Amino acid sequence: MEHVAQHRSSEPQTIVRDTTTTITINESENKNGNQINLKIDELYIQEKNSSFTSSNGASNDSVSLAWRNLSYAVTNPKTKQKTNLVHEASGVVKPGEVMAIMGPSGAGKSTLLDVLAGRKNPKLTTGEIYLNGKPGQVKYVSTYVMQEDALMGVLTVRENIQFAADLCFPSSYSKAERKARVQAIITELGLDRVADSKIGTVFVRGVSGGEKRRASIATQVLTLPKIIFLDEPTSGLDAAASYNVMKAIVQMARNYKLTVVASIHQPSTETYSLFDKLCILGRGRTLYMGKREKAIDYFKTLGHVVPAYSNPADHFLYLINSDFMTDRTQAEEHITQFSDSFENSDVNKLLQEEINTLIEQHKETGTRIISSSTTHRYQHSFLQQTMILVRRSFLNAMRNLLVFWVRIILYVALGLLIGTTYWQIGYNQANITERLSSEYFSVAFLSFMSIAGIPGFLEERLVFQRERGNGFYSVGPFVLANTIISIPFLFIISGSFTAVTYSAVGLHNDGKNAILFIVYMFLCLNVAEAMVCFIASIIPIFIASLAITAFANGFWMVFAGYLVRPPNISKGWKWAHYIDYQKYSFETILYNDLKGLNFNCERLNDTSSDRMYNCFYGDKSGRSATFTGEDVLNELGYTNIRPALWTVILIAMAIIYRLAFFAVLRLRKNHS
Ligand SMILES: Nc1ncnc2c1ncn2[C@@H]1O[C@H](COP(=O)(O)OP(=O)(O)OP(=O)(O)O)[C@@H](O)[C@H]1O
């Protein structure tokens, strides 16, 4: 095989190779003006030659994974009893091999996968993990593909992968090179046909489940990490889709000598036949670890012949399943028998020898894969990470019905409702209550409606979690991008709401006051939005965060100072009033409207008295025909409103919620 790879130089380049598929990128797309014809392994070779390091900082040499006497034990806090979720496991997976961890539900598949991937608490882990025969840190050479598809539904397959590529490849890669890499992985995972189709949302029918899973995998293996861990990559897929997903993974492992470990629940016969190795677990114990094609013979030596025409995977799982044994001791013995048999088997002896040989072979040679630094290096600066995320969030918001358009429509509809309900309330004292109500409901309803942003936020958060886990960017750029993107969006909402409400109600008829109304609505929504992000980051479960945000907004509505006026709020709840963002929003809007307005008192027709007017507010002598907006504020107890200070408080509250949102994500990251 011939590889010529030098497209990073300024000279025109030719890439000659013996594969059938090449990807042609338009000349104009290459910043050097050169045509690029690449396939994924060509890029891989180039990276190797140019000391490419993956996003995790690892070199591109193949890496074997071995583990010996690996246990993971948890202690029951009540009984103080220790339980081994993984017990004395050993195994080897070599470059180009795919190993499936199989076992019934609760067997410890995910736990073993997580322990191998370095995602579990190291204090609870004992045993050794070797990379190329030397103890090493797996996370620097691996990627972990989560079970959930973390993609943006309104973006196409290509766009999702492209944004991941923009984030995980250094800026030294030209746009055309990144595009070539994206196209290569699309081809590699058999996604060409649907590359420009949207992933799909509740509103838009998108690609199939299997295609979505492959797209999700593509976003996570772009850098060709040397070891790939996949948590149930076929869960929720039918047999054909599962086979296609696994086939694509196996193909990649073979082509690029990647070491792949996947937990699999119940593979079909076809999918099962794709694996090179099997690790069968039962109650955390190893019941078989070795070559897939030797498993049938091994179980035969134990007296368990796989019936003709049956799926070996099904048969093994059926054999070892003790879940429905009512006697716990009997169930335990059942598993112990299998694990003891394996421990004393020739297969295990060969496995131990293989691990020993691997360690011996690399004793004198090879370098230890371990990070020299505890701090992670990202491919882009903080600012660049933020800008890429802003671009993606913008595209997502513009296309996402739920994030943008539905919310705009809802806010405008709410504006119309308030505008028509309080239509031209005028300047008579009888309508003061309605005037205040229209302002209170503007604040309260719009704040409440911020819950509509939860689904979109949770989708983005899932993508963030995956990308953060893969070291694409840090928490700061995500929070900052989320904040930046919300600003124009909230201004548009505030502006369109004001456009349909302000004049319809007949609020303070002055351009300056109308603009200030938009600003105050914006400040209010800005806090509401930040609070939503904070709550949804603490509880990233749709129904739960919806309920808690609704409760929080209901709570703030009570203490905003309209349903109960400030002087009448009981002492015990005063604190709530002072930390209530709706109070500051409502009061600034109220002040902005009432200050400088005059209202008409009721004219009395009683000629026998010198009282000509009945005024609810202001001068009650009966001689004044009007009262001022300030009179209303004073008499209702809205004293000491300081718009400038309230504005600062609202900005500070938004910043505090955003910082809390940042802290939650940081803590969760550290925790995981
Ligand atoms: N932190 C923990 N503390 C106590 N028990 C735990 C903990 N984590 C997992 N377990 C238990 O360990 C066992 C193995 O869990 P694990 O998720 O690894 O199983 P699994 O084989 O992946 O199951 P499934 O196929 O259902 O996902 C289960 O019985 C689970 O309840």
UniProtKB/TrEMBL annotation:
Localization per record: Membrane
InterPro entries recorded: AAA+_ATPase, ABC2_TM, ABC_transporter-like_ATP-bd, ABC_transporter-like_CS, ABCG_dom, P-loop_NTPase, Plant_ABCG
A GO molecular-function annotation: ATP binding
Keyword match RNA-binding: no
Gene3D superfamilies listed in its UniProt record: P-loop containing nucleotide triphosphate hydrolases
Protein family (similarity comment): Belongs to the ABC transporter superfamily. ABCG family. Eye pigment precursor importer (TC 3.A.1.204) subfamily.
Listed transmembrane segments: 401-425, 440-458, 479-502, 514-534, 541-564, 644-665
High-level lineage: Eukaryota, Fungi, Fungi incertae sedis, Mucoromycota, Glomeromycotina
Domain of life the protein comes from: Eukaryota
GO cellular component: membrane
Identification of the protein by name: 8826_t:CDS:1
SUPFAM superfamilies attached to this UniProt entry: P-loop containing nucleoside triphosphate hydrolases (SSF52540)
SMART domains on file: AAA (SM00382)
UniProt keyword terms in alphabetical order: ATP-binding, Membrane, Nucleotide-binding, Transmembrane, Transmembrane helix, Transport
PANTHER family: ABC TRANSPORTER G FAMILY MEMBER 11
Keyword field contains Nucleotide-binding: yes
Primary location recorded for the protein, binned into one broad class: membrane
Topology in membrane: Multi-pass membrane protein
